[in-house]
């Protein structure tokens, strides 16, 4: 049954890749961009694994697993949290500070 609907599923996954690429272009936050990158990698993994199964090409399984490992798993790893910003940064002004010209 998958032999019949397989090419349509490959086209569906390709369309999802395109939509994810457009969503990545519209992102302003890095965290959501990384999440979309991981989702795009997972979609690419599914597409590559499906093509490998449909065409009986075992070397594509290696490519699919590398994609899963490098684009999905590594992108999902949360780096260590950065140090909190200092209380008074150079050039930082709060609302209570007023400008005083030098004497």
Please describe what this structure looks like.
The chain has 103 residues and is mainly alpha-helical. The chain has one domain. The protein is 66% helix and 0% strand. The relative contact order is 0.11. The mean pLDDT is 83.
Question: What's the topology here?
Answer:
Layout: H1 2-25, H2 30-55, H3 59-76
Helix pairs in contact: 1-2, 2-3
Give the overall pLDDT as a whole number.
Answer: 83
Low-pLDDT residue intervals, each spanning 5 or more residues:
none
Q: How many angstroms does the end-to-end distance come to? A: 85 Å
Chain oligomer state: single chain
Global shape? elongated
**Portion of residues within helices:** 55-70%
Q: What's the total count of β strands? A: 0
Could you tell me the radius of gyration in angstroms? 23 Å
Q: Biggest β-sheet: count, sense, barrel?
A: none
Supply the key terms.
single chain, 103 residues, mainly alpha, 66% helix
Task: Give a short synopsis of this structure.
The chain is built from 3 helices and no strands. The chain has helices spanning 2-25, 30-55, 59-76. The model has no long low-confidence stretch (mean pLDDT 83).
């Amino acid at each position: 049954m998958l032999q019949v609907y397989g090419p349509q599923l490959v086209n569906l996954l390709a369309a999802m890749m395109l939509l994810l690429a457009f969503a990545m272009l519209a992102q302003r936050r890095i965290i959501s961009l990384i999440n979309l990158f991981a989702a795009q990698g997972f979609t690419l993994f599914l597409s590559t694994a499906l093509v490998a199964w449909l065409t009986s090409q075992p070397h594509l399984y290696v490519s699919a697993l590398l994609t899963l490992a490098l684009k999905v798993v590594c992108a999902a790893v949360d780096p260590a949290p950065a140090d909190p910003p200092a209380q008074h940064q150079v050039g930082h002004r709060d609302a209570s500070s007023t400008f005083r010209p030098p004497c």
